[in-house]
Structures are given as C-alpha cells and as structure tokens.
From TrEMBL:
GO terms for molecular function: 3-beta-hydroxysteroid 3-dehydrogenase (NADP+) activity. One of its GO terms (cellular component) is endoplasmic reticulum membrane. Signal peptide: none annotated. This is 4964_t:CDS:1. GO terms for biological process: sterol metabolic process. InterPro entries: 3KSR/17beta-HSD, NAD(P)-bd_dom_sf, SDR_fam.
Length: 339
C-alpha cells in the first residue's frame, strides 16, 4: 500500500537573515513543528550568510537552508537576485522584508541627560538621542535609508509577484518599528533623506505600503502585513560607544523590563516573535490593517499585540505606491531590467 503523500516544505525568503531579527526568524521557522520550512537566507555578505547557515545546521541538522546573495540597498543587486530566485523556486510562501539600516552619526548626550530626568521610559524605548545623518544617497541616486528599508523590498515584491501568487496563500511580512510615526514622514520627501529622522520615516512608509499592497495583491492570494520587534538591543551602542556602554544599556533594559516596560524585548529571539505569529497564524485570524508588535512581560515571557496604524490615509498610500511604481519603471527602462 502506498504511503500518504508528503507535503513539500513551505519556502520562506528572509532578507537580512545572517543576524538579529532575520536570523531568529529563521530559527523559529526551523523549530516550528507543524509545517516544514525551507529557509532561504537572503544576505549581502556570502561569508556571513555561510556562517549563519552553518550555525543553524548545528542546531537543526536536518534543516533545509539555502542562500541567496542580495544587497537590498542596490537596485542592480535586487534585480539580479530576483532573477536567480525565479530560476530556483517555483513558488514562495513567505517573504520577510526584514533587512534594513539605522544610520547613526552620533549620540546626543544632552538629550540623554534631559530625558533621563524628564522621560526615563522614553529614553529606553525611543531613538531620540541617536542623531541620524541626513541627505545620504546610494551610488544609484536613491535616499540611502529608503533604498535599504523600503525600495529594495518593493522591487522584490513586484519582481517576484508571480512566484508569490503560485503559493496557496503567500504572505509578505515587513519588519517595521514601533517608533514609526506619521509626524516623521513628509510626502514630498518620500525617499526619506531630507528630514531629521530617515529611519522612522522609512519605517512609516513600510507600514503604509504593507497595508496598501493588499488592495492590489489580495486578489492573487498574496497578503501583506507589518510587524515590529519592540526594543531590541542592537549593535548601534556597541559600534559607537564601546563594550561598556553596550553592557550598561542592556542592563538598564532588563531592569526596565522587570519594572513593567513591556516594549523591552531586548533579544532578537524575542523581537522576532511577532513575525513568527504572522507567519504561522491562520490567515483568517490576522488583521491586514494593523501592525503586530512583540512585547515582553516583566519576567521575560513574550507576547504579540495587534495595533492600529495611526493616521493611515488611503489616498496618500495610493499616491505613494504610484511614486514607487514610477521609480521602478525608471530603473527598468534605464537598465533594461525585465519584468
């Protein structure tokens, strides 16, 4: 008697997967017991991607793990990687738009001192003291933060749309930020490089795009969501202020969490929980008009909350999609990229 047919594993592409949130998304999917996943690590650096794959295979010896080299901040790299992806996979079930940058010029110690007195919680969970460089552009003439956090992923979605549509119910899951606010976004600066907060502005744009894409893609059974990881202890402090300040920051975050600051998820594993929930929860239980956030209880237990996107405007969202489409078509014509 023939055995029951085996289900092919779901294919999950994760950008920025060699470290941080992206790496722990891969861990969570490989650890998931119900569905099998083939995890595709989409990374800029081949050595770091290979090291991440080796680390994952030590933890999950039978794990299905592939590597695609892509720099989401480079239009040329994104187009080339999409061509490779379409050759290797006949469908994509999950696309995690996770890679991104948070450029930091310096830490404003005056703001740190003032917030420590007037708003200590805000000092822990907001990025106000981290001064971002303004006006940075890529070699292709795009706003640097916009290219890495927004446009590279938008190109991937458009180029891979047919492959996403080949899945029964594919999901696009953006890693946004809890600090993304409409106040930081200027529609006349949609590439997010003239204002004082390119990172927050770019993440608000990802929230808007994540929602707006549903009106276009749901008819093809492609569903788009946005998430945030809470406050994760990244390498920014270590890179700018050294080992001692990095350890101090983490100690303060753990103390804050024990006192009830739910935003302090601290680790990448904790921060990736909302992405995991959106990836594995039945689609009918999810709200595409909200953002899903990772939060922590004082003793460290992690949970997910559904949150409204403040000030979302459908007309503004559709205008933004048109601008992105026009920009995409410019690159297609200029460099003769195929659809």
């Amino acid at each position: 008697m023939e055995g029951a047919p085996t289900m092919s594993p779901k294919i999950a592409l994760i950008t920025g997967a060699n470290s941080g949130i992206g790496f722990t998304i891969a861990q969570r999917l490989l650890n998931h017991s119900t569905d099998g996943f083939r995890v595709v690590l989409c990374c800029r650096n081949r050595k770091k991607a290979s090291d991440a794959r080796d680390t994952l295979l030590k933890e999950f010896p039978s794990g299905l793990i592939d590597i695609i080299i892509v720099d989401v901040g480079s239009v040329d790299s994104v187009f080339r990687s999409c061509k490779e992806i379409k050759k290797k996979y006949d469908r994509i079930d999950l696309l995690f738009c996770n890679a991104g940058i948070f450029p930091c010029a310096y830490l404003d110690w005056w703001t740190v001192a003032r917030q420590a007195i007037t708003d200590p919680k805000g000092l822990l969970i907001e990025s106000t003291p981290l001064i971002q460089p303004v006006g940075a552009t890529t070699s292709e003439g795009l706003g640097e933060t916009f290219a890495c956090n927004v446009f590279g992923h938008y190109i991937m979605i458009r180029q891979l749309e047919d492959v996403l549509a080949s899945s029964d119910q594919s999901r696009i899951i953006w890693t946004s930020s809890r600090t993304a606010k409409r106040d930081d976004y200027n529609p006349s600066d949609y590439q997010c490089f003239r204002g004082p907060s390119p990172y927050e502005s770019s993440k608000y744009v990802t929230d808007v795009i994540a929602i707006a894409l549903n009106s276009r893609l749901n008819k093809r059974n492609i569903h788009s969501f946005t998430t945030h990881p809470g406050v994760v202890a990244t390498n920014i402090v270590y890179d700018h202020l050294g080992w001692a300040m990095d350890k101090t920051m983490k100690a303060v975050l753990y103390t804050g969490r024990s006192l009830g600051i739910k935003e302090a998820t601290i680790t990448g594993w904790n921060g990736s929980y909302a992405n995991y929930v959106v990836a594995t929860e039945p689609i009918e239980n999810l709200n595409k008009f909200c953002k899903y956030g990772s939060y922590a209880k004082p003793w460290g237990s992690i949970y997910c909350l559904e949150e409204a996107i403040i000030c979302y405007d459908e007309k503004e969202a559709n205008d933004l999609l048109r601008k992105l489409d026009d920009l995409l078509n410019e690159f297609r014509k200029k460099n003769k990229y195929g659809v």
